[in-house]
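2 proteins. here.
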Amino acid sequence: MKIDLTSVFVDDQTHALRFYTETLGFLKKHDVPVGAEGDRWLTVVSPEEPDGTELLLEPSAHPAVRPYRTALAEDGIPAASFTVDDVRAEYDRLRGLGVHFTQDPLEMGAVTTAVLDDTCGNLIQIMQVQ
């Protein structure tokens, strides 16, 4: 068994696609219209694993999403976590692009993490395992 797809809820799929591709560096994998509301089956992948796990940028219209995301954000809990080779270098790169971090790089034993605001309603953790 392996993870093929996971998702984050986003307020605006077009904005999320720009952030996740142009800022974070993911590649668009699928962009398929779904339903009459203008929603899309919109996924991104790592350029390092274009056939790997997909991240679905899922519309946040369901009524349970807002309280769920609000509670996570208020408690500082990331909605997703991405592995990077060098947290400090990625932190510097993203800050240079104007990304807001809610947690600066923090070493915790064999793991270094930082948490950013994806501008789409989520906190995202980046982590490096030594």
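next one coming up
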Amino acid sequence: MADGPWGAEFAQARGEASPYERKVLTDGVVTAAELSDSHRRVQSCMHDGGFDLEWSEENTYEVTPSDGSALTEGVDAALEKTRLACLDRWDHSITYLFTETRRNPEKQDDAKITAACLRTSGLVGPDYTERRWRSEHDTGTFSFDEYDPAAVQCRLDPLGLWRQG
């Protein structure tokens, strides 16, 4: 994969990476075990900074203060500082590259594969184009329910390679 469709992204990420992340990215592949290790390290780092972080199946996360307090302006600033420091050290690009190479390993045109998925799912009609998807994606306003399970499936796994939606 180092020279494959995602080779340029891996090379750029290695150039901006911490020593830990550079080691993970060297072979041009992020494995599930490497992703899990990275996520554990981010969680530990956040916990050391006073925050609990929980990862979702979609590789997004939710953060709360460890002491159960509410997010206030001061706490929010500390959270952001801690979050950036932890991600810079343990996961600046790992989650992104794992997710993107899994959902689109050949790096096909995202509009093409997503629009095709939406048409196949029946969320949009046969006349729904890649151009329309790009326009809607750019504005964040979709002509379909973006939270519909089929739409989520198309966003996360448009080629149907790994996720059972």
